[in-house]
Specification:
This protein has 285 residues and is an alpha/beta fold. The chain is built from 13 helices and 9 strands. Strand 1 and strand 2 form a beta hairpin.
Length: 285
């Protein structure tokens, strides 16, 4: 069997072994748009490199999250926002691999935490409810917009929002909601977010028994189809067993796609290639 498929299946088995099925307590939730309207953010002004603690008020309560401005150069230089993958701990692990601290970059790079995922225990408890999951998405999308418009980066000409898996869905959601970045580079994601809970990861009987409801809340392919996306540069993986190419590829419509010959973890395991993809997008802006 293809080694990428084997690795992905081990990942899925691990996800299924730990914690409750997703949405096992409730599948009720307002729409993403309603969640987004409810967001209020408090975060210190971004200055030099380092960690920043933010408080995000959501429709279901306060959600703390962290930022890591890991590379801080002149604000006139490009900004890259890296959104974490689901359950990635620490939240900036991927960003630090893509843009390591021991290398110098003529960029500003900031990693964004998605709330409620600092441990498997926290994730399992929180995401037993769909409304918590939706609020987490809205909080992360809103934080991206806050960074794009904050005093430090307000006049930065080139702004790129990227992310892997969950982070890729966040990037795509931000594009639809705000489109205030110069470019978007989502890795192993798409616009049919709900499909993973109906096909590949463990979700509750209530979720699987109400697929149309899950799709209405988490998929956004219909809205995507009504827009043009010249500044979005998706990367998918041929053997991805979580966000499958045959599902997420068509969800982008007729857009050009990069398809890498790997599995769900391929871009995370190949940080140089991931970084070069982002830098290539910047070079063509």
């Amino acid at each position: 069997m293809n080694r990428h498929i084997v690795l992905d299946r081990c990942l899925l088995l691990t996800i299924r072994m730990f914690g409750k099925p997703f949405f096992s307590e409730s599948v009720d939730s307002p729409s993403f748009e309603d969640h987004l309207k409810a967001i209020r953010i408090r975060v210190p002004e971004l200055a030099g490199a380092g960690y920043y603690d933010a408080q995000v008020q959501t429709a279901v309560g306060n959600m703390p999250l962290r930022l890591n401005l890991l590379h801080a150069t002149d604000a006139s230089r490009p900004l890259v926002i890296c959104n974490m993958g689901g359950s990635e701990t620490p939240f900036d692990r991927g960003a630090l691999r893509f843009f390591p601290l021991h290398q110098a970059f003529d960029l500003n790079v900031i990693a964004v935490e998605a709330p409620l995922q600092r441990s498997v225990k926290q994730l399992s408890a929180a995401f037993a409810r769909l409304d918590n999951y939706m609020a987490m998405l809205a909080a992360t999308v809103a934080m991206n917009e806050h960074i794009v418009r904050c005093a430090r980066f307000r006049d930065t000409a080139v702004k790129v929002i990227s992310g892997t898996s969950l982070g890729g869905f966040v990037a795509n959601r931000h594009h639809l909601a705000f489109n205030s970045a110069s470019a978007y580079v989502p890795f192993v994601a798409g616009t049919r977010h709900g499909e993973i809970f109906l096909t590949t990861v463990a979700s509750s009987a209530a979720a699987r028994g109400n697929p149309d409801h899950i799709r209405r809340r988490l998929n956004f392919d219909a809205a995507w189809a009504g827009r043009s996306h010249p500044n979005v540069h998706p990367v998918l993986a041929r053997f991805d067993q979580l966000n499958r190419l045959e599902v997420q590829g068509p969800s982008y419509g007729n857009m050009p796609l990069d398809v890498w010959q790997g599995g769900h973890l391929y871009n995370s395991l190949h940080p140089d290639r991931t970084r070069n993809k982002i830098l290539d997008v910047i070079a063509h802006l």
